[in-house]
Design a protein that fits this description.
Elements (H helix, E strand, L loop, with lengths): L3 E5 L12 H5 L15 E5 L2 E9 L5 E7 L4 E4 L6 H15 L16
Antiparallel strand pairs: 1-5, 2-3, 3-4, 4-5
């Protein structure tokens, strides 16, 4: 299973723009605006709800982010080769780790002891 990169206080989702390789060389070039996958969806377990957000990156892959109702976000580090692979990972993670893992702010853990 791919590991999640980190959790953020605000979801990136389809509102994010990514500079493409051309924009660095040419500031007048358009920024890449990712396309959201039709496989993105709302996921509910009991009273908890998250958004599974799948969107393309600027290199041909698909990014996965799970966002709770308060815009806390968990973003996967690696891009997926397909939209379906990203959705499968999201559903597996929600099933195996529980939706509670993806709801609320990041819980700081003390790994020193």
């Amino acid at each position: 299973m791919r590991r999640k990169l980190s959790q953020f206080g605000t979801g990136m989702g389809h509102h994010t723009t990514f500079p493409n390789s051309h924009s660095e060389a040419n500031p007048m070039a358009e920024e890449f605006v990712p396309r959201q996958s039709e496989l993105s969806r709302t996921y509910r377990e009991g009273d908890l709800i998250v958004e599974i957000d799948i969107y393309e990156d600027d290199e041909g892959g698909w990014l996965l982010e799970i966002i709770d109702e308060d815009d806390n976000s968990t973003l996967w580090e690696d891009a997926f080769e397909s939209e379906e692979e990203a959705l499968d990972e999201a559903l597996d993670a929600l099933s195996e780790e529980g939706i509670e893992t993806f709801v609320g702010p990041v819980q700081e853990t003390d790994e020193s002891g």
